[in-house]
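Posting this for the archive.
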Amino acid sequence: MDDANMRPDARLEALFELIPPGRRVADIGTDHAYLPLLLVERRKSPFVVATDLRPGPLAAARRHIEARGLADVIELRQGDGLEPLAPGEVDLVVIAGLGAERIVAILDAAGEKARSYPEWAFMPHTPAEPLRRYAYANGLEIISERVVPSGGRFYELVAVRRGDGAAPYVGLSVPTEAAFWLGPLNMRRPSAAFCAYWQGMLGHWERLLNALGAVGGASAEATLKALSARRAMIERALEGLRQA
């Protein structure tokens, strides 16, 4: 979102669309509170808790919120991960702008508290595979997935809720391992953005393989073997989608 006129970009609009109306929301790592402002000003959420680890972004968020007279419905809190939240106080938690592994670490650190929030929306800046594994293992059902192009990059969006973590994978014709990477709902309806994102990822992995091959050594060899197998698996799965 642009500070001057607060226009939401494609990522923010997609994240906004992922959130059902009427939910009390927590935005973890809110930065300038762009998402909370969008949720409240468009009357999609009655109340948002906006958190950030750093005082600088919270100060900027406070300026934006107070300028719009929304301090009574957007509450700012400083803290790490889910620490600023009370158990069960919101319906849906958003975590965006972090790596997927970092998001999983936040969920693991929260323990039982994480299970007190019925819905989640994630937009990591790295592949969402670790989040899908976490959802599968912890009884969180994937209910929506998208790949969104923005600013010359692609971002995966994943929404989950308490339910049967295995349900989205039932009936897929490819191994769950590939579905953890590609996303079970994406695979059922692969969009142009999804296809472009994964073609780019395959190219990125190919360049990594070439670089590792030039390095040599036992450590590089082990990494090369694992990455090569993963790339081949994803390539086969994508080819299966094209033929379906």
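Residues 95 and 103 are 7 Å apart (CA to CA). The chain has a mean pLDDT of 94.
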